[in-house]
Amino acid sequence: MHPAPSLILFSSLTGLGLGLLAWLAVLGLASPPLWALGLVLAGAGFLASTRHLRRPSRAILAFTQWRTSWLSREAILAILALATLTLHGALLILRDQSPALLGALAAAIALTTVLATSMIYAQLRSVPRWHHWSTPALFLALGLAGGALLAAPRPVALAFLATALVLQLLHWHQGRTAFARAGSTLSTATGLKGEVRSFAPPHTGPNYLLREMVHVVARRRAAQLRLLTILLAFALPALLLVPDLRLLAAATHLAGVLCSRWLFFAEAEHTVGLYYGAR
Amino acid sequence: MTALPPPSPRKLGLVIDLDTCVGCQACVVACKGWNTENYGAPLSDLDPYGASPEGTFLNRVHAYECTPKDAPAQIVHFPRSCLHCEDAPCVTVCPTGASYKRAEDGIVLVNEDACMGCGLCAWACPYGAREMDAVAGVMKKCTLCVDRIGNENLPEEDRIPACVRTCPTGARHFGDLGDPDSAVSLLVAERGGLDLMPELGTRPVNKYLPPRPKDRAPTPPPLDTVAETPKGFLGWLDRALAALPGA
Ligand code: SF4
Ligand code: SF4
């Protein structure tokens, strides 16, 4: 799949922002700079996501189809999350107290928003690498780990970082065989028996399908990006927690998550690639 | 609403005969023409006379080399377009309600005025049947020519999809696949019509008729063996010559 910068930024920033806000809400921390940082990260992420729309003026309609569409659910949850979190944060900072129940509710909505984002990808059977429980698990774990780096006690942050690393490795591991496990081949795609090979594409030029879903170039440096992800998202932040350099740890972690998200898109193979003799 | 309607008894769709299709691309042109001049945003072209022309198409014809077991390879032309799936994943993912499946006949359509161009439905379709128009910024897909099939302003024989009407070899058939006695259903039963990627659970309405097994030319009788070692007088001569110095 095409690694669109707007989607990579969107999912990484909102994940970190909502993860941080969830921790602040649950722990009842009245830290104005951290609340501001969380809201700015989440808000910037949602703004980035509208860059992906060709007709953003119609985005209001995206609040209507929550019964079936994870993208619609995400849009509604995002607004609810930002509203409840802002209320809780404002009460904590201005009044020095806010009901713990409101905090728990706000955190739950924030995490459900991250879950909805991940389900947009995990629901797609056409992209076998994404269609796995490890996709939502990884998105949630990364959000929680990133937030914990800024707001949670050190051992808690380390525990979440370790969990996220395990899930990241697991997601990569299942991804290697995902397409084969799904069982789609050029034979099932065409119904032709025997050995089937693409002989000529329909048109000599490029097209939307190939650019959007058969984006092979972006995969070239996968091994290097995996290494960078492990270093930046997990190893360095863990080391930076020792001298308690929280902000630096979170910034490094975000850089690592961006690498991981690039790979998430770049390595995902869509079944339409089969028709073009590519994946 | 992007919830799928309850299954309709009427299931309009196409049956494509891979045995007959010669890959002439006439359906591609007819589709592009009709759907550019009629319903919805035109199917745009980018750089049409330049070095790298490209455009939006609702139907694309591939060619495959297929080598059945114990038979020579053959070329199969393969038109690919929306299959109007019964469990259409493209419909349920749509956040705006622009994508829908028509309750009365199962045709999968996009309300272009409600589409925000997020592209998620194109990702959800396993078959690459949806394309975002580069100029209009809305999702385009095969409509089964909704503006032809029930159009009383057209002569009776034209009230079928443009691709079916134009196909010079009769490789494309249009009809109600929900009716087991319709011509298309009988054709599917007779020729063993197939679903594409059935493992993904989309339950396509469109069916593909596999190429018929080709006739085999009888295996030619082996040629007479050319004698490698001469016998009789020639054999004696050969051995005698070989015995001379310098041979
Ligand atoms: S072929 Fe693709 S676009 Fe058409 S109904 Fe099926 S999933 Fe949707
Ligand atoms: S591109 Fe348009 S039709 Fe497709 S999912 Fe998005 S809003 Fe719906």
Explain what you see.
Chain A contains 11 helices and 1 strand; from the N terminus they run αααααααβαααα. Chain A is globular, with a radius of gyration of 20 Å. Chain A has one domain: Formate dehydrogenase/DMSO reductase fold (Up-down Bundle). Chain A is mostly helical. Chain A has helices spanning 5-27, 32-50, 70-95, 100-122, 134-151, 154-182, 186-190, 208-213, 222-241, 246-266, 272-275, and one strand spanning 195-200. By secondary structure, chain B is of the alpha+beta class. Chain B has a single domain (12-209), classed as Alpha-Beta Plaits. In chain B, 21% of the residues lie in helices and 18% in strands. Chain B is built from 7 helices and 11 strands. Chain B has helices at residues 26-37, 89-92, 120-124, 146-149, 162-166, 183-191, 232-243, and strands at 12-17, 45-46, 54-55, 59-67, 74-81, 99-101, 108-110, 131-132, 139-140, 172-176, 207-209. Chain B has a 3-stranded mixed β-sheet with strand order 10-1-11. In chain B, strands 2-3 form a two-stranded antiparallel ribbon. Chain B has a two-stranded antiparallel sheet with strand order 4-5. The chains are: A mainly alpha (279), B alpha+beta (247). Strand 1 of chain A pairs antiparallel with strand 4 of chain B, so a sheet runs across the interface. The complex binds iron/sulfur cluster (2 copies). Residues 82-85, 88-90, 108, 125, 127, 129-130, 141, 202 of chain B line the site of one iron/sulfur cluster (SF4). Chain B: This is Anaerobic dimethyl sulfoxide reductase chain B. Chain B: Residues 12-42, 73-104, 106-135 form the 4Fe-4S ferredoxin-type domain. Chain B: Its EC number is 1.8.99.-. Chain B: Keywords: 4Fe-4S, Iron, Iron-sulfur, Metal-binding, Oxidoreductase.
